Amino acid sequence: MRGLLIALTFLTRLPLPAPRNVSAAEFKHSQHYYPLVGLILGGFLWLAGRLTGPYYPPLVVGAILLALELALTGGIHLDGFMDSMDGLLSARTPERKLEIMKDSRVGAHASISLAALLLLKFSLLASLKPADMGILLLMPMISRWAFLIGVIGFPYARKEGLGQGFHEASRWLVFAAEGLIILGFAVWFLGPAGLAAILAASALAGLFSWRVSGHLGGLTGDIYGATIELAEVFALLAAFPFLH
């Protein structure tokens, strides 16, 4: 439970007591609780969707769901997405792109990419019917599992950094076991829609990580965040045709 609390206080803005004296090893190994954190976040989104869906116009429901997710996470993964887009979309050398990604200033590529991502996610959320809200329970969990494909399967681009510890502490066996549990739950809960969501998120995470790693020589913490954001959208896109 301590590992879960470490993950919750890092990934969310939930009013929880921060664990004391967290060691580097504890923090690194808390990554395997990220899918469970996603399930908790999904529970909040699902509840909000069920409560607002029958009573408010779809556009209002979509805005509420998007705002709630941002409030719950503090935009931690969006920050990584924006930094990643600033670097990856610049016409620079791989070394310079890594430097741009570390720069806290927001560039045009980040702003444009953020607008496109939020517009797409909002349109998908606003298009969900009350009976479709179950995908909200799965989406955050699947994305926070799928990003581990990059953590485990590809090197870290820098000699030091937050993500370097994640890469060193990652374990294929734990990842595979979590994946089987999530797959079974997704198919049991949503059938073909759940299967499509997890397949799409996994494919996106694998291909995106492979492409970026091949170009930059590895991944970064910002890329991990970008993977989570993109995996959420791809999970929604893939599940949508199978929802009722």
TrEMBL record:
Subcellular location: Cell membrane
Keyword Electron transport: no
One Gene Ontology cellular component annotation held by this UniProt entry: plasma membrane
UniProt keyword list: Cell membrane, Cobalamin biosynthesis, Hydrolase, Magnesium, Membrane, Transferase, Transmembrane, Transmembrane helix
The reaction(s) this protein catalyses: alpha-ribazole + adenosylcob(III)inamide-GDP = adenosylcob(III)alamin + GMP + H(+); alpha-ribazole 5'-phosphate + adenosylcob(III)inamide-GDP = adenosylcob(III)alamin 5'-phosphate + GMP + H(+)
Pathway: Cofactor biosynthesis; adenosylcobalamin biosynthesis; adenosylcobalamin from cob(II)yrinate a,c-diamide: step 7/7
EC number, UniProt record: 2.7.8.26
Gene Ontology biological-process entries: cobalamin biosynthetic process
Cofactor(s) in the UniProt record: Mg(2+)
Function: Joins adenosylcobinamide-GDP and alpha-ribazole to generate adenosylcobalamin (Ado-cobalamin). Also synthesizes adenosylcobalamin 5'-phosphate from adenosylcobinamide-GDP and alpha-ribazole 5'-phosphate.
NCBIfam families: cobS
Protein name: Adenosylcobinamide-GDP ribazoletransferase
Organism: Acididesulfobacillus acetoxydans
